[in-house]
Amino acid sequence: MPKRTSYAQGTPNWVDLQSSDPDAAKTFYGGLFGWQFDDQPMPGGPPYSMAIKDGESVAAIGPMSPDLAAQKVPPFWNTYIAVDDVNAATAAAKSAGGRVMMEAFDVVEAGRMSVVADPSGAIVNLWQARRHIGASVVNEPGTLIWNELLTDGSEATFAFYDKVFGLTAEVSEMGGNPYTIFKLGDDMVAGSMAPPMEGIPNHWHVYFAVEHIGPALEKALQLGGTVINGPMPTPIGPMATLSDPQGATFSLFEPSGQTS
């Protein structure tokens, strides 16, 4: 996969983990995906650890914020979506029925971001790139391959992503079940479905590619992870949902190369 040098507005471009134990999380994901880490100092706080795969930045791990830790929020993966102008996109999110959780702010020289919740309550980060475009490699083993909005939201939720990012929602089928594809022009950039089990909050879920899902699941278990569901066959390849030792959920996907 060629190195990414930019992302069009509306494309998920980065993921990071807010963990209750970043060092333990680095051991887990480093062992599972072969990631190495470059600890970036942050003003007035602990480091932000960039996950490096074959010399390229693919994700990051950082600590839970004190506020979230105090609320006993479990660790979670964040999805970022690229925007051309984060101030304008944040204002659009507000007018489209979303809630602004954090107003736009600069992240040193890397970029500018804000945090918003869509009308169904799912939180997503908006990223205006400067020096950091997001993941420089995706869709290869050990890297991000898909972002999926799990939501029980109404049409207002899908209208939100159209108004803010220019994403159109098309309903298709996945293994006989309805599945919504977010498209940017003709490109499929993300997906959406209802939460698969009762009690799962609306959120953006992340998938990482693996070469072979069986050995990857065995490795995850050896490293202290938990398999929540799967592996399950799909028309495009087997996948499984896991949690890391601190409780953050994510999925593994072994792409088959099929598109239908």
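[next item in queue]
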Amino acid sequence: MLAGRRSTHAAAVVTTLTAGIALVVGTWQFRSLPAETGPSITWWALPLTALVAAAIALGTAGRPGITSTGALAVAGVQLVVWGWQRRDGLTRALLPTDAPAWLDRLATALALGVGVAAVVVAGLTLGALWRHPAPAQAPTPT
């Protein structure tokens, strides 16, 4: 079970960093376009949600329970959805942002890859918890 905790912690660290990068890029894109063009709130809201969930996963990693694993799964799903919405930017010559094209594409690729990896790690950890639940703790006398 220790390997599961380590992999969840490592995945939470990488997911937190990736969500931070995605938040910067998404906010940059949102602020690059005039309000008249109707920039999408999901450009920054999905990475923000992923960052909060990844921070929760990081803060609760190693503790008993499924909070860390569930938060990691939420963060991974948010990153995958964000990256999937932006997948056309990986092949387009022009991008609707003032951010450097390499940074925008890097953030999208990272979000897709790290998001999928986070969901896989969370799923494997939940599967291991399902097969080998932690022993029940005795209530503390008061």
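[queue empty]
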